[in-house]
Amino acid sequence: xxxxxxxxxxxxxxxxxxxxxxxxxxxxxxxxxxxxxxxxxxxxxxxxxxxxxxxxxxxxxxxxxxxxxxxxxxxxxxxxxxxxxxxxxxxxxxxxxxxxxxxxxxxxxxxxxxxxxxxxxxxxxxxxxxxxxxxxxxxxxxxxxxxxxxxxxxxxxxxxxxxxxxxxxxxxxxxxxxxxxxxxxxxxxxxxxxxxxxxxxxxxxxxxxxxxxxxxxxxxxxxxxxxxxxxxxxxxxxxxxxxxxxxxxxxxxxxxxxxxxxxxxxxxxxxxxxxxxxxxxxxxxxxxxxxxxxxxxxxxxxxxxxxxxxxxxxxxxxxxxxxxxxxxxxxx
Length: 332
What we know:
Elements: H1 9-23, H2 25-47, H3 51-66, H4 68-83, H5 87-117, H6 119-134, H7 137-148, H8 152-176, H9 180-188, H10 193-222, H11 224-228, H12 236-245, H13 248-274, H14 287-297, E1 321-323, E2 329-331
Antiparallel strand pairs: 1-2
Helix pairs in contact: 2-5, 3-4, 4-13, 5-6, 5-8, 5-10, 6-8, 7-8, 8-10, 9-10, 10-13, 12-13
């Protein structure tokens, strides 16, 4: 059994990493500086003001998006984090999650759009995403440590690699799921591909894309413990200390803080995908029902917006499908 052919894949990977470190070290130093600056800024914004200001601001945002009940629950949850002495760690974790999410979204949405518009790109990207999703997260830390040194940056890089895949997949899925007839109608009216993408496909795919961003955030938050193993600050450190000391109380407090942040981010991003919740207005008679009734009684008036009357003595023109922002059609 020991005489069986052995592929030196590990040696090849090590040689590639050594070559990158030798000849592209300056590039990764610049990337490290950019990521570190982004993290320091986010951590300063969240950690420098008094805690009650952050509680009020996030609570108002939650109230605006989902109503006063959720805003109150968010404020109570943040106060619980403060009461268990995990506020600084929670803000460090939130800063790391936000930075990693922003970078992952910047990468995933353009790649997902590209894959949705090209079957060849999709065939190339799909196995790469499979590799990123199935590779154990700890493996990402090894090259990240070599390229970016110990600190928060390797944690950010490993988090991005672990969380970027669902953003790409769901962006591609959302754009490919747009009704072909809607896109063909845009082409028929001479709309440019750029306008079709930004005015038809992306608005209609927004719920699916936001679901992908939601998954990116959740996966980024799930990496807090692993990121702390390479020097990143945050809630992962007390969790690791609790495991080493078998301290159930400390572990539960830090874990509870992670859960509160996860629920808060999940509900807020879900609301951004479905739209802000509004108070229901009194029901009004549907326009379509009124038009049908008028047609049946012979009192319907010809449409005057975007339509032209049929020439006298000529055949009536076929109805033209008009696309709307919500993806539906109207016959004129």
